[in-house]
Amino acid sequence: MAHTPQPPDADGGAGTVPGPADPGPPGPDGTRTDEQEPGRAGALGPPSWLALAFLLPALLFLGAYMLYPIGFSVYRSLWDAPGTTFVGIDNYIRMFTNPPTFVALRNNVVWVVVAPIVVTVAGLIFAVLTERIRWATAFKLVVFMPMAVSFLASGVIFRLVYEQDPERGLANAVITTVQDTVAPAGDYPDASPRDGSGVEPADGGGFRLGAEVTPGDEPAMVPLVGIAADDLPGAAEPARAPEAPAGDAVAGTVWLDFTPGGGGTEGAVDPEERGLPGVGVRLVDADGATAATTETADDGTFAFEGVAGGAYTVELDPRDFSEPYAGVTWLGPTVVTPAIIGAYLWVWAGFAMVLIAAGLSAIPRDALEAARVDGATEWQVFRRVTVPLLSPVLMVVFVTLMIYVLKIFDLVFVIAPGSVQADANVLAVEMWRVAFGANDQGLGSALAVFLLVLVVPAMVFQIRRFRRENS
Amino acid sequence: MSDDAATTAPAGAGPDPLAGPDGAEGAPRRSAAARAAARLGSGAVQLLLVLIALFWLVPTLGLFVSSLRAPADNASSGWWTVLARPAELTLENYAGLLDNPTFVGSFWNTVLITVPSTLLIVAIAALAGYAFAWMEFPGRDWLFLGVVGLLVVPIQVALVPIAQLYGGAGIYGSIVGVVLFHVGFGLPFAIFLLRNFFAAIPRDLLEAARMDGGRELTIFRRVILPLGGPAIASLTIFQFLWVWNDLLVALVFADAANQPMTKALQAEMRQFGANIDVISSGAFISMVVPLVVFFAFQRYFVQGVMAGAVK
Amino acid sequence: MTEHAWRLRGGVAVAAAGALLAAGCAPGDGGAPGGGDLQGVQLKVAAKWTGVEQDNFVEVLSAFEEETGATVEYEPTGEDTGAYLGPKIEAGEPPDVALLPQPGLLEEYAAQDALVPLSGDAAAALEENYTDYWSDLGSVDGEPYGILLKAAHKSIVWYRPEAFDAAGVQPPQTWDDMVGTTASTLSDAGETPFAMCGASGWTLTDWFENVYLSQAGPDKYDQLTAHEIPWTDDSVVDALETMAEVWGEGDYMAGGTDGAVQTDFPTCVTQVYGQQDAAMVYEADFVAASAAEAGATVGDTAQAFPFPAVGDAAPVVVGGDIAVAMSENEGTQELLAYLASPEAQTTWAGLGGYLSANSQVQPDAYTDEFTQQLSQTVLDAGEDVRYDMSDQVPSQFGATEGRGMWAVLQDFLRDPGDPEATAQELEDAAQEAY
């Protein structure tokens, strides 16, 4: 910007915008480098009234759109919603006690603390890294591009990215793909036990037969429901109850106990019901140790042969019933603010990067070389030389981001779905909602004034910096 | 691509702020071992930067591809599945938008709001910037400091008062109201930028012109405006995009008949899942103009944004 | 009330239902009341309708123009009527007639003296054509201001017959049947019973209103609406507990609890009729348009049953737009009188996408069987019909994103574990708003 240190070798002549934007472009040390006295028009200068004529349109606009509104907002904030009753500082008290406004305030604090730092750090990293590559310009162009499009469009882009359904949202698609590679989902995630059948949920998401079985008993029947007939594997065949097992055998059937179109007897294998193939079945003995394992056949039957006497529990392998990982609820109430800050980073990192890169290129190579000659590592050079020399630029970036973050509106308004608007609320959104949704222009004005007060330090920073550079 | 963009920019705009010094060559000489390590490190850095660049590109690509898919496809699968089935891409969404009078109207409203605002801001700020830079009058420095202070005033402060003012003036909801609001809030930055630039114009040129008996308006036209070209270009582009992309001002001051694209699209967001076809194609159309402007005049735009630091 | 989107949809809504007979009804050629020569008079009417809904309304208006010689200009307000009108009122240049989506707004504006009471023929038309409940609804302190012009029937559960057939279930008569038999059998059959539209807060308030009206009765409904009984009343807790029978079952809702809260309207309709991820979706008559857009044929692959009775009687909750006068300009009252007339509304009914609350508009005015049935339920319920509660309470409490009922019920959908705490939160929010 106007006040970024200029590269010493960059021609500070009339060509550059940032250069001449400085009245006498300051060198890296902040001192004026030319003796021009801007504005000293001298004896030939025009009369004051002409200056006023040149300024008049601007002054009218500034008066009408900035000075008058500031005054009016302060005044209006002391009146009630319709503007008929003077309420003093009531609106300001409400601002801090009204829960939705308070949430907005709290979120704004999170934003102001987190976002500028994250973006500045990202900008610094990008700026430093791109110093070393040939395609730096292309990279910067790509990262800077979001600055050109509207926050609305960026918001739409990130609504798509953060879509909950892993089938449609990119972020969750990536996360669940990774997760599913590590722990794949089962074939029957929706299954649940048929009520009253004696099948009960077991630890880890599997199922078990409540009643124990001993070898030679009647077949162990495991009716499950909740699976859509269309979701059964193609191999599934009509279910069948196994023959009565031999004396040293345990047999049974795992099947979908639901006749398409209704009807059928609950807990019994009906003609149109199909077995669940490929379900892992475990025989667990009285000590809790697994005695044998097998898998169901295409008709849902399973059998263990040569089982020693005793009581066993039949358990179904939880892995066959595990739900697919649904991903992160990005736009749920808990992480919506971090998620939107992610989008904010995407938009603003280019800004930070470009300003910091301009600052970097202005650092004298000699200083870096000297440090290296003294045996400093690259990290030390970065920490001890680069960052201190960059600090004025970092400060400008940081303060600029902070001002914009305080006023953040579009991204929050656009990205947060209706049901989490309350959780993602920030002051600027709240101000709009209160003043133009609930038509409470008293509280709305108070919020606007509060926002103004919050940026006053930045105003002071700005004016002091300007005076320092112009004195 | 970036090189093309750089060369299409008119000459005389100064160094491209995106194009830093070529670091690969600028790297200091090191020992062979250090160079090898550096090359290896550089490989890792390149890979990292490629990943970061993808992180920046892919979401936008996602929007674009989504806008080319039928609503039913978007409802049932992710946009990336087109990699396997490119045949399902369609221009239907765009055709639908062009048939949608609300959207087409909002596009023209955006133009009708953006162009006059930008021109007015530049014209008024150029006059004021010149006065602040080269004309003598009492209280000038204090007045200018005031302008600097106004740079950071949040727009929210003006919403309620101006809404009431407009109500009284009968321009609430109209395009005129939106335009004037943008001018009002764009001016501090515009004056700041142009004043600083004009102040750096060599004094001799001005003195000479005044010596020749040039009137102020003539000097302004013949000397200041031509020399200030690059700054004016930066400002124009910056303001153009700023106004084009605005949502908040439109939300408050533009009624349904005069709403720009941003507001029209925002209304659709309430039914995001169901309107994704309109939203994605509409958002993309709203991005096209800014992207073209950005790539064509990127150095001016970047310089404008940089000058906007601490706004 | 945000159910209408820009490229509306809502228009064809009800008309799409059932067999779409050619809308051959001739526009009302019968003499509408109001009369008088209004040659050269210019009137402005503002409503949120766009697309087909706007076209139909303009056609209804044109009969008035022809008859009186007045010119009526229609202005779409956009989604947020309050945000559109507020500044116009402040500026002193409101439209002559506005269609308010909420009686809550009506009260606010009446309190601000922004409305002109109905008089003459308009007041008479309200008196003659509407039941006392509707007259009271449009009145503030006994002064009549508004006429419910266009109703939305909000006591309908939409379902996918194919899913019901696969599970072998029938549309339920009572809430207990719906939860105990219909939903559980669907769930056993592997069909998710409900799609929820939790991201659109107003759909959740509609759930509550139906359950509450049926369970606690119309009197309590009115008391709660007026905040004469607190939200911590046992009847509220009971209603919440009843709702939790569905809302508490993650398996009963498409996408589970998380999905239910994140799905907006009409995406939930798409889940039923497009993706076929669920069997039922509760919302109003205007679901028809979204169902048709999702590829279903209304009356065939998309059908509906009345919201089942939780208590003694099945609820009939109606929402809709209320016409008010905002200026004293000549012709304003005449226009309202015309709009309130059975003639105008019968014309409108013939155009489709319309449901009247006018007792004089007969079911046969509608061109399709489905709307005829809806109209019949409204007429049958008579004085027990209730207007959407969330639209009657202060908008900050009942109709604001992220606020009041919307936000609290969304939290309740997320975790319906503690109805009493939820009732307390509702009461707190109500205290703040009333």
TrEMBL record, chain A:
SUPFAM superfamilies: Cna protein B-type domain, MetI-like
Keyword Ligase among record annotations: no
Range of residues in the leader sequence: none
UniProt-listed Pfam families: BPD_transp_1, SdrD_B
Transmembrane regions: 49-68, 109-129, 141-162, 343-364, 385-406, 442-461
ABC transmembrane type-1 domain sequence ranges: 105-462
Coiled-coil residues: none
Region of interest (Disordered), ranges: 1-42, 184-205
Keywords linked to the UniProt accession: Cell membrane, Membrane, Secreted, Signal, Transmembrane, Transmembrane helix, Transport
Name of the protein described by the UniProt record: Sugar ABC transporter permease
Domain of life (superkingdom): Bacteria
Bilayer topology: Multi-pass membrane protein
Matches recorded under InterPro entries: MetI-like, MetI-like_sf, Sdr_B, UgpAE/MalFG_permease
Family: Belongs to the binding-protein-dependent transport system permease family.
Localization per record: Cell membrane; Secreted
From TrEMBL, chain B:
Matching CDD domains: TM_PBP2
Pfam families membership: BPD_transp_1 (PF00528)
Subcellular location as annotated: Cell membrane
InterPro entries in the cross-refs: MetI-like, MetI-like_sf
Superkingdom to which the source organism belongs: Bacteria
Domain ABC transmembrane type-1: from-to ranges: 107-297
Transmembrane stretches, start-end: 37-58, 107-130, 142-163, 169-194, 223-244, 278-297
Region (Disordered): 1-27
Principal location: membrane
The keyword Hydrolase is assigned to this record: no
Cell division found in the keyword field: no
Membrane topology according to the record: Multi-pass membrane protein
Keyword annotations: Cell membrane, Membrane, Transmembrane, Transmembrane helix, Transport
Signal peptide positions (record): none
UniProt xrefs under Gene3D superfamilies: MetI-like
Family per record: Belongs to the binding-protein-dependent transport system permease family.
Name used for this protein in its record: Carbohydrate ABC transporter permease
Organism for this UniProt entry: Nocardiopsis endophytica
From TrEMBL, chain C:
Domain of life: Bacteria
Alphabetized InterPro entries for the sequence: Bact_solute-bd_prot1 (IPR050490), SBP (IPR006059)
Pfam families membership: SBP_bac_1
Transmembrane segments: none
Keywords assigned: Transport
SUPFAM superfamilies tied to this protein: Periplasmic binding protein-like II
Family: Belongs to the bacterial solute-binding protein 1 family.
Name by which UniProt lists this protein: ABC transporter substrate-binding protein
Species for this entry: Nocardiopsis endophytica
